[in-house]
Structure to design on (229 residues):
């Protein structure tokens, strides 16, 4: 069991949260985390880089001068790849879909939880008893981060209804915000710390933060996956 300290807004430990490693994969799977990171990173590529091959460059196809008798090296038309303004030898034509790869659903879910386990083992999860704000205030959130010693990049993951919490954190440098139900391995590994509150973290661990989606064929009747259970 991992005993995660729970802090108040002053940075004082007020409680602990017991987390079973088995619910997060039991052990850190470095190969899976690397695979999930590389795939997610590659899927973010725009695939918009374009260069023109010699067949797409505007210009005449006329041979510049005759093959023999000039004393110069033999040459073809002006669109050849060895001349200035000519085409590119291996033109970039791949689209966004050409870079896309995917993990199976079980691997993706395990990678997300395993990344959280890695953060917990390294002591890089800062959990507060609550992060509710009456009004958005960046200064208060900055003081909260300083109280627990966060001096590097951090990812703030909160429940989707905590609007003031997101508005208070999003303008801080080196701080990114994410809904707790969208927490993934790429976001966790791309930041040094994870900042969350007890309610959001518990909802991620027990799965209650994930919305139930309508079952195929029963959408008109309003039947959902949760109702089917």
């Amino acid at each position: 069991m991992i005993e995660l300290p729970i802090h108040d807004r002053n940075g004082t430990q007020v409680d602990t949260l017991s987390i079973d490693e088995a619910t997060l994969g039991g052990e850190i799977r470095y190969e899976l985390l690397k695979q999930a990171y590389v795939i997610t990173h590659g899927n973010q590529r725009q695939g918009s880089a374009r260069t023109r091959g010699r067949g797409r460059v505007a210009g005449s196809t006329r041979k510049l001068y005759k093959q023999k008798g000039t004393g110069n090296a033999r040459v073809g038309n002006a669109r050849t790849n060895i001349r200035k303004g000519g085409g590119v030898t291996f033109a970039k034509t791949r689209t966004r879909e050409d870079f896309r790869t995917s993990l199976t659903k079980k691997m993706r879910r395990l990678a997300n939880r395993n990344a959280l386990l890695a953060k917990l083992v390294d002591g890089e999860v800062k959990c507060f008893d609550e992060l509710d704000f009456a009004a958005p205030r960046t200064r208060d959130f900055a003081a909260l981060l300083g109280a627990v010693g966060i001096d590097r990049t951090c990812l703030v993951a909160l429940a989707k209804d905590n609007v003031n919490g997101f508005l208070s954190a999003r303008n801080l440098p080196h701080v990114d915000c994410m809904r707790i139900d969208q927490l993934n391995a790429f976001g966790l590994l791309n930041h040094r710390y994870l900042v969350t509150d007890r309610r959001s973290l518990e909802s991620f661990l027990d799965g209650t933060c994930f919305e139930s989606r309508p079952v195929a064929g029963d959408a008109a009747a309003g039947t959902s996956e949760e109702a089917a259970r």
